[in-house]
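Please check both lines for our workbook:

___
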Amino acid sequence: MKSVLFSRFFILLPWILIVIIMLDVDTRRPAPPLTPRPYFSPYVVGRGGARLPLRRGRPDSGPGRGWQKRNESRPQPRPEPPLPTIYAITPTYSRPVQKAELTRLANTFRQVAQLHWILVEDAAARSELVSRFLARAGLPSTHLHVPTPRRYKRPGLPRATEQRNAGLAWLRQRHQHQRAQPGVLFFADDDNTYSLELFQEMRTTRKVSVWPVGLVGGRRYERPLVENGKVVGWYTGWRADRPFAIDMAALYVAISSTSICAPGAGLGVRSVVGTRLGPSSPGLLPVLS
């Protein structure tokens, strides 16, 4: 009996081994890649991620056409008004720290949107140093030059008057044949330092704005004296008898103002700030926008 069982076992053993080997080879084969099937959802995604049922229209309408038409029927938001351009007029002259101070000022202006830098050299020609500096600054800029006459370089006379007037003349010529775009002008000396918050506030200037200035005139700060929203005087430490006893860095004028765009508007060499800003200059003092 045992011999019969052993004989049958050895007869079936090769076939069992063949079956096991075939199963093992089949399991090691890589699975065929799955082809993705297109999925058509009966919903469309609305505002806020809400799922809305898809309305079927005409065959040529396409999926989601009804939702698009509902969006088109809603009133579109009004476009925001253009950002007023800030024009900074900077007089500069050759000295050892010129490039260092211009670099500090440029690093501030790069962080201000819609700013145009008018750089005016006190020289008979544009210098290579300032030309290369402006080319690498990456700012919308205009490079001008005008020398200061020798007779105006005496102590006690205002400095950089010719350069500021050259910047005003360029700005007036720019807006002479076109309607003045919204913008604000200010005089940024190359040794000044500015807070970025100031540029946001100056864009709201409607006519003329005046701000305090720190570390000037032998005092910790100079500022306008304001009563009922109007400038009535000045807190200053240098020549308080001046009609406009304030540093140039404190004055901001709207480009749309007739004073700045009037023919002949400028700064007098022997006069004080603002006495030649145009026909409506008497109205500048009491305005604080």
